[in-house]
Amino acid sequence: MPRIPLVPLHWHLPAHPTSVRRARHAVTASLPHALRPDLGDDLGLLTSELVTNAILHGADGKDGDLIELVLWPADGHYWLAVSDPGNGKPALAHPSTDAENGRGLLLVDHIAAAWTVRPRPTRGTSVVAGLSYR
User: Fold this and answer.
1) Which residues form the Histidine kinase/HSP90-like ATPase domain (predicted)?
2) What's the rounded Cα separation, in Å, for the pair 55 and 57?
3) pLDDT, tens digit, for every residue of 36-71?
4) How many domains are contained in the chain?
């Protein structure tokens, strides 16, 4: 009989700055207690950066815009997908040393074992990042 995988955790949050803290807390609190010391800080940072980017660059400011988060373990990683209704393709930037922003995906690139950007089947964009727990 095949091993049945865990059901991914799934949240919808308003595309509003207050959702960044809620998302970070929900995701890190969902980790098994034994993994929180190793993954909690990095997963919290990934969540904050990806949700912030989704709100700033992927939502169009309508009241009904939602950010979707999905968290699941697979292949020795915890995977986080953050999706927004926008059609942009997030890309690494290399801001000047005096720039006040533009470093979010650089942090994601440094922390994550792997990450990618995927278009959604109907509308929007997802950024998927994985952290190794082995």
Assistant:
1) 13-126
2) 6
3) 998 999 999 999 999 999 999 888 766 688 999 999
4) 1
Task: Judge whether 50 lies within some domain.
Answer: yes
Question: Three-state SS for 12?
Answer: strand
CA angle, 124 then 30 then 8, to 5°? 50
**pTM of the complete model:** 0.90
103-131 pLDDT, tens digit each: 889 999 999 999 999 998 888 999 999 99
Distance CA 105, CA 88 (A): 14
What tokens were used for 65? 């815009």
**Is residue 62 one of the residues assigned to a domain?**
yes
**What is the Cα–Cα distance from 132 to 7, expressed in whole angstroms?**
19
Domain presence at residue 19 = yes
**Where residue 28 sits, what CATH number does that domain have?**
3.30.565.10
Residue 22 tokens, joined: 């809620």
In a domain, 27, yes or no: yes
Residue 47: C-alpha distances to residues 33, 34, 70, 98, 117 (Å): 18, 19, 11, 25, 15
